[in-house]
Amino acid sequence: METTTNAEPIDRRPPALALIIDGEAVTRTSGGHHAHISPMTGEAQAEIPLAGVAEIDAAVDAAHRAFAGWRATPGAERRRCLLKLADLIEQHAAEFGRLAAIECGIPVAVGEGYAPGACADWIRYYAGWADKLEGQLLSTFPAEDFAYVAPEPYGVIGLIITWNGPLVSLGMKVPAALAAGNSVVIKPSEMAPFVPALFGRLAKLAGFPDGVVNVVPGGPEAGARLIEHPLVEKISFTGGPATARRILHACADLLKPTVMELGGKAANIIFDDVDPDAAAAQAVYHSLGVLSGQGCAIPTRVVVQNGIYDALIERMVALAEAMKVGDPFERDTAIGPLINEAAAVRVTGLIETAKAGGAMRLLTGGGRVGGVLAGGAYVAPTLFADVDPADPLAQNEIFGPVLTIHRFRDEAEAIAIANATRYGLGGYLHTNDLRRAHQVAAAMRTGNVFVNTAKTLDPAMPFGGTGISGFGREGGKAGIEEFVRHKAVGIARG
Ligand code: NAD
């Protein structure tokens, strides 16, 4: 895997950006430009050409033309292209890390050290599915008639993703759609266009025919056009619930199917029979240390049993204070800036409201980071203890390095706290009691539960939400099933 060392300075200049339509790099667009602001400095660093209606239409037309050939391509060849893409992504790990730091302020330890490998894993997993989707033969008795059921790709899939972790989002959506024989039009956020553009260029190098993979960064108007385009058969969306509602209204009018991967407010239940050092490390690193708290399935509500409460929060504070907040290009940085100034203002506003309410205990953090980082969108890792589970801070997604800590007495109370939000994406629990692990996992109203682990993104495991965290699944057989329809054919033998 290509990596950089701390000794080598990383080029901080953004590359020129091109859309990828029908295998061509497109730089002249009709959607205007987006002034891309560096999360590190707050200064404009690039002019992003945005897809307008004309580019979305051109991408969808290209995907539609490419679909018939791609659908007819043998599974072994689809797999070959996917495996090649996975290799290329790993070979470009350092460039992906650089771009993720430029566009979102993601520390290179994550953008280079984690995301490319995770994306490649997902691609290889679905490469294996490319010739393993099976139908079904149905016979009737007496065997006069019979029927078969065959999986078919939809056609053109519209993929709309948000800015946090675009490489992982692409890995979770694109290979499953392609392995099943669909072509795709990817609309990344204008705030994170560089990583998806490189992904699109590598798809061409991997040998996908022109038009099978199109990448058209743009704003909400581009997304809206992709949704309403009559040749787009299905939408798979990753983003926030507010945008999801708008998309669902549009899709309702068009009777267009969707997959919705939305936000989360995961509880991390820690029973008092566990090792406090290990539980504290997971509670802190898997939340604050993942995309600086800007993750959908990370455990942001730490729900701790009485007997271990004080020992755990003491350890959590020590670990959080030891995490380096700083320049995402430095390899030992754990927490970079938030995506932009508006996000930092919003998050510190929530912190100030919580402090002013006086009902919870601020353990550490609680505001912006000053000194040489004052110009960027940096927020200090912030821990609040004794938080009422009903408080807005514990009810709404914060999307920043802020954790709420809640106390519970028994299993029933822990489950009640965990289930007391409208979200239902991830759930975590730590215990050494096997009966309790099964029972609490079954009771948590979430799409995923992780017991004594934080390994959330295994491509073989279906990932997705309940409640306002959305519906549909990415990962596993369920993930590729989202991109096929089942055609049933009945045949008379007579
Ligand atoms: P958002 O919902 O504002 O935007 C997401 C995408 O939708 C962008 O590409 C945007 O341009 C596009 N868009 C906006 N308006 C549109 C419209 N009317 N029609 C079509 N497209 C439109 O994204 P956000 O709220 O900033 O993203 C953060 C959210 O994403 C959080 O809630 C986070 O939890 C969630 N998320 C979920 C997952 C998951 O897998 N479940 C992963 C990452 C992020």
Keywords, separated by commas or semicolons:
20 strands, Aldehyde Dehydrogenase, Chain A, domain 1, seven-stranded mixed beta sheet, 494 residues, globular, 16 helices
Write the layout of secondary structure elements.
Elements: E1 19-21, E2 24-26, E3 33-37, E4 44-49, H1 53-72, H2 75-91, H3 93-104, H4 108-111, H5 115-127, E5 136-139, E6 145-153, E7 156-160, H6 166-179, E8 183-187, H7 194-205, E9 213-215, H8 220-228, E10 232-238, H9 241-254, E11 258-261, E12 266-270, H10 276-285, E13 299-305, H11 306-322, H12 341-357, E14 361-364, E15 382-385, H13 392-395, E16 402-408, H14 411-418, E17 427-430, H15 434-443, E18 450-451, E19 470-471, H16 476-481, E20 484-492
Parallel strand pairs: 7-8, 7-10, 8-9, 10-11, 12-13, 12-17, 13-16, 15-16, 17-18
Antiparallel strand pairs: 1-2, 3-4, 5-6, 6-20, 11-19, 14-15
Helix pairs in contact: 1-8, 2-5, 2-7, 5-6, 10-11
Descriptive account of the structure:
It contains 16 helices and 20 strands. The protein is of the alpha/beta class. Helix 2 packs antiparallel against helix 5 and helix 2 (75-91) crosses helix 7. The chain is globular and about 75 Å long. It has helices spanning 53-72, 75-91, 93-104, 108-111, 115-127, 166-179, 194-205, 220-228, 241-254, 276-285, 306-322, 341-357, 392-395, 411-418, 434-443, 476-481; strands at residues 19-21, 24-26, 33-37, 44-49, 136-139, 145-153, 156-160, 183-187, 213-215, 232-238, 258-261, 266-270, 299-305, 361-364, 382-385, 402-408, 427-430, 450-451, 470-471, 484-492. The structure holds nicotinamide-adenine-dinucleotide.
